[in-house]
Design goal:
Blueprint lengths: L19 E2 L24 E7 L4 H21 L9 E2 L5 E7 L10
Antiparallel strand pairs: 1-2, 2-4, 3-4
């Protein structure tokens, strides 16, 4: 059973990958990558960028191994065969990173 079928049966994957931040589709405005044309819900703002193959040859082989490992893990946990949103083939297997800029406030916190 893969994680796509049962999200409760998954564990996070942690790793360190050395690469180069790509300038492809980078927009870093006051709302991160959130486009105001979709409304003014700033709580949905995120930072999104791509990490591509490193320029330093000492890290290149490790990056290639990481891509192969991610491809395997993605196949194992994905609920579909649509694998185009993390490893970007059009950018030579760059990795798309997304981070929320805001976290919801929980009751009892300041």
């Amino acid at each position: 059973m893969n994680g796509g079928d049962n999200p409760e049966n998954t564990e996070p994957l942690y790793c360190i990958v050395v690469g180069t931040v790509s300038d492809n589709k980078v927009y870093l405005g006051k709302h991160g990558n959130f486009s105001l044309k979709f409304g003014e819900e700033a709580q949905k703002a995120k930072l999104q960028f791509s990490v591509s193959h490193p320029n330093d040859p000492d890290f290149g082989a490790d990056y290639d191994k990481a891509v192969l490992a991610f491809q395997e893990h993605q196949r194992n946990v994905s609920g579909t065969r649509d694998h185009r949103y993390f490893l970007l083939k059009e950018e030579s297997n760059a990795m798309r990173m997304n981070f929320a800029l805001f976290e919801p406030k929980v009751s009892g916190s300041n």
